[in-house]
Amino acid sequence: MPRAEELLTLTPQGLYCPAGSFHIDPLRPVPRALVTHGHADHARPGHDHVLATPQTLDIMALRYGETHAQTTQSAAYGEAIRIGDVSVRFIPAGHVLGSAQIVIERGGLRLVVTGDYKRGEDPTCAAFECVPCDVFISEATFGLPVFRHPPIRDEIARLIASTQLFADRAHLVGAYALGKAQRMIALLRGEGYDRPIWLHGALEKLSDYYVAQGIELGPLRKVAAEDRARLAGEIVICPPSAMQDRWSRKFPDPIACFASGWMRVRARARQKGVELPLVVSDHADWDDLIATIRETGAGEVWLTHGEADALAHWCAGAGIAARPLNLLGYGEEEAQS
Ligand SMILES: [Zn+2]
Ligand SMILES: [Zn+2]
């Protein structure tokens, strides 16, 4: 059997497969990139060739223009694709629309690179599928026992209840543009919220794309400048950065809400001036990270980014060899938001 290092190693550009001559989610332009999902910290423009799911390719084209790469190839979920000496497959990661784990195999050795992933409910993308493997290369964004995400429906119900209790105030929900915004909308619909949901202009393009892909988001309205004063009691979704903007001041007595796994840390919510923190994360929490590691049956775990040290310590205690890679440059999408 080949050694794991023959299938995956670290270079300054990020994770690299020598046997297939490709990088995964490279941080800088490379000849051949396999991209797990469309978030800006994983999907960057300027590669010669990109292999990704059709949705990830669409999202990259929406964000960077059709010329983000010289050539592209789409990978359907589950399709085995031969590259050099290895076989790769893209498997749903449950993170955002089109997100994938990448399975690399050769000679009976199987590695899985998760990219970002979650196991929680999300009506807007295919659910995470656990692939048994020898080496599991996982994110660890919330790899501390303090990060246990509460039931998602409770968080959504709190938001809806607040719009009823404070019907004279606009509810500004900060959510990043790819995935979180659409998931919040879909979860609100799932809890029976059927009023129009108002969108900051920066969220429109990707939300339209989700709808075009068949994701039901119900009635959506773009916020025009003159609308703001009359949106008391309504839900307005905006990029987190817009909550502190001049843009937000014209709403009637706005309540700053923020949908993020980081809202588990109350000090962080206070520091950001968030009045209604909503613990809604697109990353696995501590319990899901360790349950997933066990479920893969992997004898070895590499941790790409996040709270890698605590999770590596847990792995050691469970008799699993763990290696924190501490790759820099990932995690910005959620950290900023
Ligand atoms: Zn991501
Ligand atoms: Zn990320």
Keywords:
6-stranded mixed beta sheet, Xnuc_lig_assoc, 337 residues, 9 helices, binds zinc ion, Rossmann fold, globular
Mind explaining what this structure looks like?
Keywords: Exonuclease, Hydrolase, Ligase, Nuclease. One of its GO terms (molecular function) is exonuclease activity. With 337 residues, this protein is an alpha/beta fold. The chain folds into 2 domains: 4-146 and 283-336, 4-Layer Sandwich (Metallo-beta-lactamase, Chain A); 152-278, Rossmann fold. 24% of the residues lie in helices and 26% in strands. It has helices at residues 4-7, 54-64, 152-165, 180-190, 204-212, 266-271, 286-296, 308-317, 332-336; strands at 9-11, 14-17, 22-24, 32-34, 47-52, 69-74, 81-83, 86-92, 100-106, 109-113, 135-140, 171-174, 197-199, 220-222, 235-238, 255-259, 276-278, 300-306, 321-324. The strands form 3 sheets. It has a 7-stranded mixed sheet with strand order 7-8-9-10-11-18-19, covered by helices on one side. Strands 1-2-3-4-5-6 form a 6-stranded mixed sheet. It has a 6-stranded parallel sheet with strand order 14-13-15-12-16-17, covered by helices on one side. Helix 5 links the parallel strand 13 (197-199) and strand 14. The longest helix is centred in the middle third of the chain and has 14 residues, at 152-165. The N and C termini lie far apart (43 Å). The mean pLDDT is 95. Bound molecules: zinc ion (2 copies). One zinc ion binds at residues 39, 41-42, 116, 330-331, 333.
